[in-house]
Write a structure and sequence with these properties.
The protein has three domains: 51-188; 202-308, Cytochrome Bc1 Complex, Chain D, domain 2; 325-438, Cytochrome Bc1 Complex, Chain D, domain 2 (Orthogonal Bundle), CATH 1.10.760. 43% of the residues lie in helices and 5% in strands. The protein is built from 18 helices and seven strands. The strands form three sheets. It has a three-stranded antiparallel beta sheet with strand order 1-2-3, with no helix packed on it. Strands 4-5 form a two-stranded antiparallel ribbon. Strands 6-7 form a two-stranded antiparallel ribbon.
């Protein structure tokens, strides 16, 4: 017998009901998974450990690891006690304030167990069960081995206890509702503990472990999506933004006139200046300051790993810099005169500073970037030595140059020392940077 059209309609209705039921079950499962992540119970407090509870070697190892992780940078306010929090962290979603991670029982982590500390580092959940914002890069810290987290815990628990209550975050509505972070984690928190790759040697694997874990290098040097999560896959290390500075690509797509090598990266990471690429500025300054005190073998390992990301890139080892002095001066004679008076003493060929390892402008990365942010910020804010008085120094010119003069100077530098397209809207960019600097 052939099925009647009524039977066909009944079968269609059953299919629709089946799909609806399946969809409802899937939704319930999704809601259940969300609620399971959203609700996290608090963990009990423990007596604050004594410094004598931890072996000296473990504390020393934790100090080195915390240095590579830049813990002190984010968790110390300007003029504040070390690790006591309170530093403002600007994000596209508002301002977060770092928390106190000294062993103070009331305002810090003095009552936290090792288990509570590890949960915060790996899952982004506070001891009391609150979700933590991913400004704490727990998506990277999930890769860190258990023993290293134990060492960092030992180091922090032996710091001076400081009473410093947490400041209220200033986030756009409704992002102050922390359970929403469970959805973010459901989508993006899937990293696993680092496993060495057998096709690479021990130095490379050590560098990968530190860079991808505690160092969280891709956190700045990768683009982020609308939810603030790193874009992975082919976009990893393809460049990003950090505190208004361009973090150049490290995967070979960067604009550096000369390819980075493991040796040149080591010099840069250890001292803050590399004669053919530039000087550490902006958020890289504190990174270099930390790495200047980290174990040399670890810094070399990180340099080895980062250099491998662009190993396929080839270019002349010493490319001939473009000589566009006359062209730049003709296009902007006022800026040429300004350069001669304010900049040439350090940056013109043969200047004393050029014989002391300072980078030449024809290969400095800031002038090769697609965006003028780094060049403008360096002119306005100057460059401060990240590794002590012997490091690279450039005075700020915010008080002596107008936005129009900064724009003219940046345009002149771009034309003279690179063969890349001219930057646009430079005066507006300078005004934006100046406004940001004037805000508390």
């Amino acid at each position: 017998m052939k099925p009647t059209r009524w039977a066909g309609r009944a079968a269609g209705r059953r299919a629709v009901v089946g799909w609806a039921a399946g969809g409802a079950l899937a939704c319930l499962a999704g809601v259940g998974a969300f609620l399971g992540i959203a609700y996290r119970s608090g963990l009990p407090t423990v007596p604050t450990p004594k410094a004598s509870d931890f072996p000296v070697e473990l504390v020393s190892r934790g100090a080195a690891l915390a240095t590579i992780g830049d813990c002190i940078v984010c968790h110390t306010a300007d003029g504040g006690a070390a690790y006591a929090g309170g530093r403002a962290l600007a994000t596209p979603f508002g301002t977060l304030y770092s928390t106190n991670i000294t062993p103070d029982r009331e305002t810090g982590i003095g009552g936290w167990s090792k288990e509570a500390f590890k949960r915060a580092m790996r899952d982004g959940v506070s001891r009391d069960g609150r979700h933590l914002y991913p400004a704490l890069p727990y998506d990277h810290y999930r890769r860190v081995h258990d023993g290293d987290l134990d060492a960092i815990y030992a180091f922090l628990m032996t710091r001076p206890a400081t009473s410093a209550p947490a400041k209220a975050n200033e986030l756009i509505f409704p992002l102050g509702f922390r359970p929403l972070l469970a959805g973010w984690k459901l989508l993006f928190l899937h990293q696993e503990e680092f496993t060495p790759r057998p096709d690479h040697d021990a130095v490379w694997n050590r560098g990968a472990y530190l860079a991808e874990g505690l160092g969280h290098c891709s956190g700045c040097h990768s683009p982020r999506n609308l939810a603030g999560a790193e874009e992975t896959g082919g976009s990893a290390y393809s460049g990003g933004m950090a505190e208004g500075w361009v973090a150049p690509a490290l995967n070979g797509a960067g604009p550096a006139a000369i390819p980075w090598t493991a040796d040149s990266l080591f010099t840069y990471l250890r001292t803050g200046v590399e004669g053919r690429h530039g000087a550490a500025a902006g958020p890289m300054g504190p990174v270099v300051h930390g790495l200047s005190r980290a174990p040399e073998s670890d810094v070399r390992a990180i340099a080895t790993y980062i250099a491998s990301l662009s190993a396929d890139r080839t270019a002349p080892e010493t490319p001939a810099p473009p000589d566009r002095t006359a062209e730049a001066a003709k296009a902007n004679p006022a800026a040429a005169a300004l350069f001669a008076g304010a900049c040439a003493g350090c940056h013109e060929g043969g200047a004393p500073m050029m014989t002391q390892g300072r980078p030449g402008l024809s290969t400095v990365t800031a002038l090769q970037l697609d965006r003028p942010d780094n060049a403008i910020r360096a002119i306005l804010q100057g460059i401060h030595p990240p590794t002590g008085p012997a490091g690279p120094t450039m005075p700020p010119f915010a008080a002596s140059l107008t936005d129009a003069q900064v724009a003219d100077l940046a345009a002149y530098l771009r034309t003279r020392f690179s063969d890349r397209p001219a930057w646009t809207s430079l005066e507006a960019a300078s005004a934006t940077v100046r406004k940001e600097e004037s805000q508390p």
